[in-house]
Write a structure and sequence with these properties.
Layout (H helix, E strand, L loop, with lengths): L1 E2 L6 H17 L6 E2 L6 H8 L9 E4 H10 L10 E17 L7 H10 L5 E4 L5 H13 L4 E4 L3 H9 L5 E5 H9 L3 E6 L25 E9 L4 H16 L1 H9 L12 H21 L6
Parallel strand pairs: 1-2, 5-6
Antiparallel strand pairs: 3-9, 4-7, 4-8, 4-9
Length: 293
Protein backbone atom coordinates (compact mmCIF):
# COMPACT_ATOMS: atom_id res chain seq x y z
CA UNK A 1 0.00 0.00 0.00
CA UNK A 2 1.89 3.04 -1.29
CA UNK A 3 1.50 6.18 0.85
CA UNK A 4 2.69 9.14 -1.26
CA UNK A 5 3.80 11.15 1.80
CA UNK A 6 6.15 10.76 4.76
CA UNK A 7 5.40 8.50 7.70
CA UNK A 8 3.31 10.07 10.46
CA UNK A 9 1.17 12.28 8.20
CA UNK A 10 -2.61 11.95 7.78
CA UNK A 11 -2.52 9.59 4.74
CA UNK A 12 0.04 7.37 6.48
CA UNK A 13 -2.17 7.29 9.60
CA UNK A 14 -5.26 6.23 7.60
CA UNK A 15 -3.22 3.54 5.79
CA UNK A 16 -1.92 2.05 9.03
CA UNK A 17 -5.38 2.04 10.66
CA UNK A 18 -6.77 0.10 7.66
CA UNK A 19 -3.86 -2.25 6.93
CA UNK A 20 -4.19 -4.52 9.98
CA UNK A 21 -7.94 -5.36 9.69
CA UNK A 22 -7.57 -5.71 5.89
CA UNK A 23 -4.66 -8.12 6.47
CA UNK A 24 -6.87 -10.25 8.70
CA UNK A 25 -9.58 -10.47 6.01
CA UNK A 26 -7.23 -11.10 3.08
CA UNK A 27 -4.97 -13.51 4.97
CA UNK A 28 -1.90 -11.66 3.67
CA UNK A 29 0.42 -9.11 5.23
CA UNK A 30 0.06 -5.52 3.99
CA UNK A 31 3.24 -3.48 3.81
CA UNK A 32 2.76 0.29 4.02
CA UNK A 33 5.46 1.92 1.87
CA UNK A 34 6.13 5.67 1.97
CA UNK A 35 7.13 7.04 -1.46
CA UNK A 36 7.47 10.81 -1.14
CA UNK A 37 7.98 13.75 -3.50
CA UNK A 38 6.20 16.29 -5.72
CA UNK A 39 3.14 16.67 -3.45
CA UNK A 40 2.39 12.96 -3.62
CA UNK A 41 2.51 12.62 -7.41
CA UNK A 42 5.61 10.38 -7.40
CA UNK A 43 4.02 7.77 -5.13
CA UNK A 44 0.77 7.73 -7.14
CA UNK A 45 2.80 7.37 -10.36
CA UNK A 46 4.58 4.36 -8.91
CA UNK A 47 1.22 2.58 -8.58
CA UNK A 48 -0.08 3.76 -11.96
CA UNK A 49 2.91 2.01 -13.58
CA UNK A 50 2.78 -1.14 -11.40
CA UNK A 51 1.60 -4.57 -12.54
CA UNK A 52 -2.23 -4.80 -12.35
CA UNK A 53 -2.22 -7.86 -10.11
CA UNK A 54 -3.74 -6.42 -6.92
CA UNK A 55 -0.46 -6.46 -5.00
CA UNK A 56 0.37 -2.74 -5.34
CA UNK A 57 -2.25 -0.24 -4.13
CA UNK A 58 -2.43 3.56 -4.03
CA UNK A 59 -3.86 5.24 -0.95
CA UNK A 60 -4.28 8.98 -1.24
CA UNK A 61 -6.72 11.86 -1.00
CA UNK A 62 -8.29 14.89 -2.69
CA UNK A 63 -4.92 16.59 -3.24
CA UNK A 64 -3.11 13.58 -4.73
CA UNK A 65 -5.95 12.19 -6.86
CA UNK A 66 -7.72 15.43 -7.91
CA UNK A 67 -5.74 18.64 -7.31
CA UNK A 68 -2.34 17.42 -8.55
CA UNK A 69 -3.75 16.81 -12.04
CA UNK A 70 -4.45 20.53 -12.43
CA UNK A 71 -1.04 21.64 -11.12
CA UNK A 72 1.56 19.10 -12.26
CA UNK A 73 2.29 17.79 -15.78
CA UNK A 74 1.65 14.23 -14.58
CA UNK A 75 3.05 11.32 -16.65
CA UNK A 76 -0.20 9.41 -15.92
CA UNK A 77 -3.93 10.07 -16.07
CA UNK A 78 -5.69 10.14 -12.69
CA UNK A 79 -8.91 8.68 -14.11
CA UNK A 80 -7.66 6.38 -16.90
CA UNK A 81 -4.57 4.87 -15.26
CA UNK A 82 -6.00 3.92 -11.86
CA UNK A 83 -8.77 1.51 -10.86
CA UNK A 84 -10.97 2.77 -7.96
CA UNK A 85 -11.41 0.36 -5.04
CA UNK A 86 -13.18 2.23 -2.24
CA UNK A 87 -13.95 5.70 -0.91
CA UNK A 88 -12.45 6.16 2.57
CA UNK A 89 -13.34 8.67 5.34
CA UNK A 90 -13.12 12.40 4.73
CA UNK A 91 -11.87 15.37 6.70
CA UNK A 92 -13.89 18.58 6.29
CA UNK A 93 -12.17 21.95 6.41
CA UNK A 94 -12.76 24.53 9.13
CA UNK A 95 -12.53 28.32 8.90
CA UNK A 96 -10.38 29.50 11.84
CA UNK A 97 -8.91 32.90 12.73
CA UNK A 98 -6.57 34.35 15.33
CA UNK A 99 -8.32 35.23 18.57
CA UNK A 100 -7.88 38.99 18.07
CA UNK A 101 -10.24 39.09 15.06
CA UNK A 102 -13.42 40.84 16.33
CA UNK A 103 -15.93 38.81 14.23
CA UNK A 104 -18.14 36.43 16.20
CA UNK A 105 -19.68 34.46 13.29
CA UNK A 106 -18.93 33.67 9.64
CA UNK A 107 -20.98 36.55 8.18
CA UNK A 108 -19.22 39.04 10.47
CA UNK A 109 -15.88 37.49 9.53
CA UNK A 110 -16.54 37.91 5.78
CA UNK A 111 -17.57 41.53 6.48
CA UNK A 112 -14.36 42.09 8.46
CA UNK A 113 -12.22 40.79 5.56
CA UNK A 114 -14.05 43.11 3.13
CA UNK A 115 -13.57 46.08 5.48
CA UNK A 116 -9.83 45.32 5.61
CA UNK A 117 -9.33 44.34 1.97
CA UNK A 118 -5.68 43.80 1.05
CA UNK A 119 -4.55 43.77 4.68
CA UNK A 120 -5.85 40.33 5.75
CA UNK A 121 -3.47 37.32 5.51
CA UNK A 122 -4.36 33.63 5.12
CA UNK A 123 -1.84 30.87 5.82
CA UNK A 124 -1.41 27.89 3.47
CA UNK A 125 0.69 24.73 3.42
CA UNK A 126 2.10 25.82 0.05
CA UNK A 127 0.94 26.22 -3.54
CA UNK A 128 -1.79 23.75 -4.48
CA UNK A 129 -2.20 22.43 -0.93
CA UNK A 130 -5.69 21.82 0.46
CA UNK A 131 -5.40 25.00 2.55
CA UNK A 132 -4.42 27.01 -0.54
CA UNK A 133 -7.16 25.67 -2.85
CA UNK A 134 -9.75 26.01 -0.06
CA UNK A 135 -8.62 29.61 0.50
CA UNK A 136 -8.99 30.41 -3.21
CA UNK A 137 -12.45 28.84 -3.20
CA UNK A 138 -13.34 30.89 -0.10
CA UNK A 139 -12.40 34.05 -2.05
CA UNK A 140 -14.57 32.98 -5.00
CA UNK A 141 -17.63 32.17 -2.88
CA UNK A 142 -17.44 35.25 -0.62
CA UNK A 143 -16.10 37.82 -3.10
CA UNK A 144 -13.26 38.69 -0.72
CA UNK A 145 -9.59 39.40 -1.44
CA UNK A 146 -6.70 38.72 0.91
CA UNK A 147 -3.02 37.79 0.83
CA UNK A 148 -1.84 34.17 0.93
CA UNK A 149 1.19 33.37 3.08
CA UNK A 150 2.72 30.01 2.08
CA UNK A 151 4.41 27.77 4.68
CA UNK A 152 6.20 24.43 4.41
CA UNK A 153 3.23 22.74 6.05
CA UNK A 154 0.10 23.39 8.08
CA UNK A 155 1.98 22.96 11.37
CA UNK A 156 4.07 26.14 11.08
CA UNK A 157 1.08 28.05 9.65
CA UNK A 158 -0.99 27.10 12.69
CA UNK A 159 1.82 28.15 15.03
CA UNK A 160 1.82 31.61 13.44
CA UNK A 161 -1.99 31.78 13.62
CA UNK A 162 -1.93 31.00 17.34
CA UNK A 163 0.81 33.65 17.74
CA UNK A 164 -1.30 36.20 15.81
CA UNK A 165 1.22 36.56 12.96
CA UNK A 166 -1.41 35.72 10.31
CA UNK A 167 -5.18 36.29 10.37
CA UNK A 168 -6.81 33.02 9.37
CA UNK A 169 -6.62 29.58 7.70
CA UNK A 170 -9.16 27.37 5.95
CA UNK A 171 -7.67 24.21 7.43
CA UNK A 172 -8.39 20.49 7.79
CA UNK A 173 -10.54 20.13 10.91
CA UNK A 174 -8.29 17.47 12.45
CA UNK A 175 -5.35 19.93 12.45
CA UNK A 176 -7.12 22.87 14.11
CA UNK A 177 -9.70 21.46 16.50
CA UNK A 178 -7.41 21.05 19.51
CA UNK A 179 -6.31 24.70 19.26
CA UNK A 180 -9.99 25.72 19.03
CA UNK A 181 -10.82 23.64 22.13
CA UNK A 182 -7.89 25.23 23.97
CA UNK A 183 -9.25 28.71 23.14
CA UNK A 184 -6.11 29.68 21.19
CA UNK A 185 -7.92 30.35 17.89
CA UNK A 186 -11.55 31.02 16.87
CA UNK A 187 -13.66 28.71 14.67
CA UNK A 188 -16.47 30.03 12.45
CA UNK A 189 -17.78 27.04 10.49
CA UNK A 190 -17.00 23.55 9.21
CA UNK A 191 -17.23 22.97 5.45
CA UNK A 192 -19.46 19.90 5.79
CA UNK A 193 -23.16 19.13 5.48
CA UNK A 194 -23.42 18.11 9.15
CA UNK A 195 -21.76 19.27 12.36
CA UNK A 196 -18.75 17.29 13.50
CA UNK A 197 -19.49 14.85 16.36
CA UNK A 198 -16.09 15.87 17.79
CA UNK A 199 -17.04 19.59 17.67
CA UNK A 200 -20.85 19.83 17.85
CA UNK A 201 -20.85 23.53 18.83
CA UNK A 202 -19.28 24.70 15.54
CA UNK A 203 -21.94 25.40 12.87
CA UNK A 204 -21.81 24.11 9.30
CA UNK A 205 -21.23 26.57 6.44
CA UNK A 206 -24.90 26.15 5.43
CA UNK A 207 -26.04 27.09 8.95
CA UNK A 208 -23.62 30.04 8.86
CA UNK A 209 -25.10 31.28 5.57
CA UNK A 210 -22.58 29.99 2.99
CA UNK A 211 -23.89 26.59 1.80
CA UNK A 212 -21.74 26.61 -1.35
CA UNK A 213 -18.52 26.60 0.72
CA UNK A 214 -18.62 22.80 0.95
CA UNK A 215 -15.08 21.36 0.87
CA UNK A 216 -13.81 18.02 2.06
CA UNK A 217 -10.40 16.36 1.97
CA UNK A 218 -11.59 12.83 1.22
CA UNK A 219 -9.44 9.70 1.08
CA UNK A 220 -9.55 6.70 -1.25
CA UNK A 221 -7.89 3.47 -2.35
CA UNK A 222 -6.93 2.63 -5.96
CA UNK A 223 -5.19 -0.14 -7.95
CA UNK A 224 -3.38 0.05 -11.30
CA UNK A 225 -5.64 0.19 -14.37
CA UNK A 226 -6.47 -3.25 -15.74
CA UNK A 227 -6.57 -4.98 -12.34
CA UNK A 228 -9.13 -7.81 -12.77
CA UNK A 229 -12.64 -7.07 -11.48
CA UNK A 230 -12.62 -10.06 -9.11
CA UNK A 231 -9.44 -8.74 -7.44
CA UNK A 232 -10.97 -5.26 -7.11
CA UNK A 233 -14.07 -6.86 -5.56
CA UNK A 234 -11.95 -8.83 -3.08
CA UNK A 235 -9.96 -5.74 -2.06
CA UNK A 236 -13.16 -3.68 -1.79
CA UNK A 237 -14.76 -6.32 0.48
CA UNK A 238 -11.68 -6.32 2.75
CA UNK A 239 -11.70 -2.52 2.99
CA UNK A 240 -15.45 -2.36 3.65
CA UNK A 241 -15.08 -5.00 6.38
CA UNK A 242 -12.26 -2.96 7.97
CA UNK A 243 -14.34 0.23 7.85
CA UNK A 244 -17.21 -1.55 9.63
CA UNK A 245 -15.13 -2.57 12.65
CA UNK A 246 -15.95 -0.56 15.82
CA UNK A 247 -12.29 0.00 16.75
CA UNK A 248 -11.53 1.42 13.28
CA UNK A 249 -14.62 3.66 13.32
CA UNK A 250 -13.71 4.89 16.80
CA UNK A 251 -10.15 5.73 15.70
CA UNK A 252 -11.38 7.69 12.68
CA UNK A 253 -13.93 9.54 14.82
CA UNK A 254 -11.17 10.57 17.25
CA UNK A 255 -9.27 12.04 14.28
CA UNK A 256 -12.35 14.04 13.22
CA UNK A 257 -12.80 11.96 10.05
CA UNK A 258 -16.31 11.43 8.60
CA UNK A 259 -17.24 7.89 7.52
CA UNK A 260 -18.94 7.62 4.09
CA UNK A 261 -22.41 6.01 4.08
CA UNK A 262 -22.48 2.28 3.22
CA UNK A 263 -23.94 2.83 -0.28
CA UNK A 264 -20.91 4.95 -1.26
CA UNK A 265 -18.36 2.25 -0.44
CA UNK A 266 -18.32 0.80 -3.98
CA UNK A 267 -15.64 1.19 -6.69
CA UNK A 268 -18.30 2.83 -8.89
CA UNK A 269 -19.10 5.44 -6.22
CA UNK A 270 -15.41 6.39 -5.87
CA UNK A 271 -15.03 6.60 -9.66
CA UNK A 272 -18.04 8.91 -10.00
CA UNK A 273 -17.00 11.08 -7.05
CA UNK A 274 -13.39 11.48 -8.22
CA UNK A 275 -14.59 12.49 -11.72
CA UNK A 276 -17.09 15.00 -10.27
CA UNK A 277 -14.43 16.50 -8.00
CA UNK A 278 -12.01 16.92 -10.93
CA UNK A 279 -14.74 18.68 -12.92
CA UNK A 280 -15.46 20.96 -9.93
CA UNK A 281 -11.92 21.82 -8.81
CA UNK A 282 -9.72 21.93 -11.90
CA UNK A 283 -11.39 25.10 -13.26
CA UNK A 284 -11.07 26.77 -9.81
CA UNK A 285 -7.35 25.89 -9.63
CA UNK A 286 -6.60 26.87 -13.24
CA UNK A 287 -8.57 30.15 -13.03
CA UNK A 288 -6.56 31.05 -9.91
CA UNK A 289 -3.35 30.23 -11.82
CA UNK A 290 -2.10 28.07 -8.93
CA UNK A 291 1.40 26.84 -9.76
CA UNK A 292 3.97 24.75 -7.94
CA UNK A 293 6.71 26.75 -6.25
Amino acid sequence: MVVPFAAGGPVDTVARILSEPMRATLGQSIIVENVTGAAGSIGVGRVARAAPDGYTLSIGHWSTHVVNGAIYPLPYDLLRDLEPIVLLPSNPMIVVSKSAVPAKNLNEFVGWIKANEGKVSAGTAGAGSATHVAGVYFQNVTGTRFQFVPYRGTGPALQDLVAGQIDFIVDQASNSLQHVRDGKIRAYAVTASARLPSAPDIPTVAEAGLPSLDISVWYGLWAPKGTPKEIIAKLNAAAVQALSEPAVRQRFAELGLDMPPRDRLTPEALAAYQKAEIEKWWPVIKDANIKTE
